[in-house]
Design brief:
With about 80 residues, the chain is α+β, with helices and mostly antiparallel strands. The protein has a domain of about 45 residues. The protein has one helix and four strands. The termini are far apart. The model has no long low-confidence stretch (mean pLDDT about 75).
């Protein structure tokens, strides 16, 4: 599950939990000094994305180690 957040400046106050399409108000920040707007944070829960095909963290390093080990083995075989 992934969550996306954004901030809005609204001209009128809203209640916690108010909804705007698939966005929900999760934080009320109050008002700005000398300005008439209300700061709120919205959150939207996104469905899980399918696997992107990128390697897992650390896989590239392990692959480089494996390649270096194989190269050393090939070099040692050539010397014998």
């Amino acid at each position: 599950m992934q969550m996306e957040t954004k901030y809005l400046r609204l001209p009128t106050p809203v209640m916690l939990g108010s909804r705007f399409d698939d966005w929900s108000v999760c934080w009320l920040g109050g008002w700005a000094k000398h300005r008439m707007f209300f700061l709120v944070m919205l959150v939207r829960v996104l469905p899980d994305r399918p696997h992107t095909g990128l390697p897992a963290l650390g896989t590239a390093r392990n692959e480089r180690r494996r390649q270096a080990r194989n190269a050393l083995e090939r070099n040692s075989e050539r010397e014998t």
